[in-house]
Design brief:
The structure holds two protein chains of two kinds. Chain A has six helices and 16 strands. Chain A has helices at residues 3-19, 21-28, 195-201, 203-210, 213-216, 228-231; strands spanning 35-44, 61-65, 72-77, 85-88, 94-97, 107-111, 125-126, 128-131, 145-148, 153-156, 162-165, 174-180, 183-190, 222-224, 226-227, 234-235. In chain A, α1 (3-19) packs antiparallel against α2. Chain B has a three-stranded antiparallel beta sheet with strand order 5-6-7. In chain B, strands 1-2 form a two-stranded antiparallel ribbon. The chains are: A alpha+beta, B alpha+beta. Chain A binds chain B through residues 116-119, 125, 127, 138-141, 149-152, 165-167, 200-201, 234, 236-238, and chain B through 49, 53, 77, 79, 93, 95, 97, 112-114, 120-121, 123-124, 127-128, 131-132, 134-135, 138.
């Protein structure tokens, strides 16, 4: 797909989805198995009221759990329009990432499970974090990125979380967010998710945190969104 | 068996492997791959992360060969956390990525480091190690 046809396709999706939001998920799902629809879940503030665009401070890292009760995701307002891009995996497979949502198209959301070795934010620590423009990574000197300190996998949130550097084989999976009447809904996951490996590798930890594996794997119908620094004990930057 | 050991200018064995710097194939036998601490002629540290990274490159080359495809080898990377104090626990970290200088046929290291010890990096040290154990043994 060349740039012109890609932009045309994205415009068609955008216009059609304004008329009927289900068109959006329907078209995305046509992407050769790269999109998986999950339960549609409304994003909520900590007080339980619907999250609005104004609640997401620019360049602040917020956490929510989707599509399972234990699978963390980050939602970030990048402060400027984030355009759709075609993401190419190292195996050559491609998919169209939808870009930002909201009035400025500046809000993006990704799985917070590192695609390298599945490091993820726990209530104690988060080693995978967003580095805002004013807080570049001390070691890589890069800002505006998502970086995992475990082995320095770097992802670009403006480009569908493409791998910028480091050992990750895949981009972070993208959470597809739909806006309806000023409210935000997560509707599915686009890209290569790491959920099976996450559940395999963290059986014991998830049982301890959620009471049982079944509870950790419960699909959510709503997601509370909060600042990462409020959820985890210590945000570890590097 | 092919001679897998590199020789110095005087023809004496160096004790290290004589392998291609990019594919890790033994120069004496392309069906033999050598990774980890044995390799020579490359600016790579003898570390676990590096051996792990090299192993994955070789795995892709072998998988490609089985599938009848020529796989262009990538370069490894290395991240190394070092615990430099026990109480309180404090660590430093170095990360090195590599670039291939086609003109000089040379692998060039691009090191980055945090040399200021901290307790936060000590916590990251455990995550670094646990992630690697998951990769190797899970």
């Amino acid at each position: 797909m060349n740039r012109r046809s890609f932009i045309k396709a994205c415009s068609t999706i955008a216009v059609a989805s304004m008329i009927d939001p289900s068109v959006f998920s329907g078209l995305i799902s046509a992407q050769e198995g790269m999109f998986k629809a999950y339960k549609k879940a409304i994003l909520l503030k900590e007080d339980g009221s619907p999250l609005t665009e104004e609640d997401l401070k620019p360049h602040t890292n917020y956490i929510f759990f989707y599509p399972y009760a234990s699978t963390p995701c980050y939602i970030i307002n990048l402060g400027e329009e984030v355009k759709p891009v075609e993401v190419t995996l190292r195996n050559g497979k491609k998919y169209n990432w939808q870009g930002g949502v909201g009035s400025k198209k500046s809000i993006v959301a990704y799985s917070a499970i590192c695609a390298h070795q599945w490091s993820y934010p726990t209530k104690k620590y988060s080693f995978i974090n967003y580095y805002p423009p004013e807080k570049p990574s001390e070691i890589t000197k890069k800002a505006g990125i998502i970086q995992c300190c475990a082995h320095l996998a770097l992802y670009d949130p403006k480009e569908g979380a493409k791998v910028i550097d480091g050992p990750a084989e895949f981009p972070l999976a993208s959470v597809v967010i739909q806006e309806e009447g000023g409210k935000f809904y997560a509707i599915g996951i686009l890209g290569v998710d790491q959920f099976d490996k996450f559940f395999d590798n963290y059986k014991r930890e998830l049982r301890e945190a959620y009471g049982s594996t079944a509870k950790a794997k419960e699909l959510v119908e709503s997601c509370k969104v909060m600042e990462v620094s409020k959820y985890v004990g210590q945000v570890i930057y590097c | 068996m092919a001679d897998l050991i590199a020789k110095d200018k005087e023809g004496k064995p160096t004790g290290w492997a004589d392998q291609d710097p990019l594919t890790f194939q033994a120069k004496a036998d392309p069906y033999v791959f050598l990774v980890g601490d044995v390799v020579s002629g490359v600016p790579y540290p003898k570390s676990g992360h590096m051996a792990n990274s090299q192993g994955k490159i070789v795995a892709k080359i072998i998988a490609g060969r089985i599938a009848g495809k020529e796989v262009k080898p990538t370069l490894p990377d290395n991240t190394c956390y070092s615990m430099v104090n026990g109480s309180p626990q404090e660590a430093i970290v170095i990360n090195v990525t590599y670039e291939y200088n086609e003109k000089e046929k040379k692998i060039v290291p691009k090191p980055k480091a945090i040399n200021e010890r901290s307790q936060a990096l000590a916590k990251a040290t455990y995550e670094w190690a646990k992630s690697m154990y998951r990769d190797m043994f899970a």
